[in-house]
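Issue: ligand-bound run for 4'-deoxy-4'-aminopyridoxal-5'-phosphate - logging full I/O for the record.

Environment: standard queue, default settings, no custom constraints.

Inputs:
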Amino acid sequence: MLDGFAGLWCVNIGYGRSEVIEAAQRQMSKLPYASSFFGFANEPALQLAEELVRLSPESLQHVFFTLGGSDAVDSTLKTIRYFFNVTGRPEKKHVIGLERGYHGVSSTGAGLTGLTSCHRFFDLPLPNQHHIPSHYRYRSSYGVTDAEIISGSVAALETKVTDLGGSEKVAAFFCEPVQGSGGVIVPPEGWLAAMRDACAKLDILFVVDEVITGFGRTGQLFACDWERVEPDIMIIAKGLTSGYSPMGAVLMNDEIYRALVDKVPRDLPFAHGFTYTGHPVSAAVALACLEIYERERLPENSKVVGAHLLNGLDALREHPWVGDVRGKGLLAAIELVANRETRESFDPRLNVSQLVRRKAYENGLIVRAFSDNVIGLAPPLVVGEGDIDQMLDRLARAICAAQTDLREA
Ligand code: PMP
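Outputs:
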């Protein structure tokens, strides 16, 4: 069985890595738990924070540890609210995300997520949460050239801020550098940098959710590195510990951190943190993972083998169902359509992507099926071209088998 999705796009270093297992065991024997409250810290967490500051974009100078992505998004939203309240801008409350964006499932983050399934019946989004259209080229709201998509996105953000009452009322814009759960949607080159600049001009915080894209997934350690983008806040999880142990983090700039520490009323310090904030075993696991990313140059492998994957997926266009192929590094997808000329979608009742996923499984390959008949691939970053060829072969067979099934139904 080949895992073409790295668990839940998190097992970046692959399975059974003894260095990581031993690091966890050593840390468990030495100190299995330490509170991060009351001024305490622990060695692996401190060391990991230093490493993350060293490796991440310059702007990010401080780290708050969480247990995963959703609580990192929720912590970010609370931090932003606190930041503007203690710096005398309590009116800055609205937050903006992208349609098809995904920011976890907490009561706050799920509203910022731009997927109807995460909103319906949950009374979400919250009244201060808003969305602008995705940069989704295949079904574009903005036109199809890079320039049209970039200028359209910037204009949509500016208009949304104006509609919400201007910069004084808006706190932040959130995005993933590549949209993951929305269907692996890759923005045009220059989009991320343009949105960063737009946020600076609009005087709103620019928050990047690198929960999937971080730790080599797109071919750089962080996807922000492609365009040297310096966010105000970066959210990470998944590849941080490669799924060997739960952990996430919020990386923030010095101005925000200083406000949390210096500007708070003495009797009311920043009251936020979890029992397992900075968990020493997870921190030791993360440090072992970082060593592997660096030693084995996994971001570079992701770039090189990712290009091979994208070429292979492009060749699948021979199949009449394959309408769109997209990806960056080892993060890729195909979109299956009923009619390639008109891009007409399949009747959702046919459940085509689930059928292909099942056929892939029967052929020894795990892929992910998204809504709108998107099939996603995000294998561990240790794969070689030979592994990719096997995955592509199994996927091609799965699509043909699904077509046969449908024809005979
Ligand atoms: N943000 C993004 C971009 C994600 O993809 C995810 C999880 N897939 C999350 C946040 C939430 O992370 P978790 O599942 O660890 O809570």
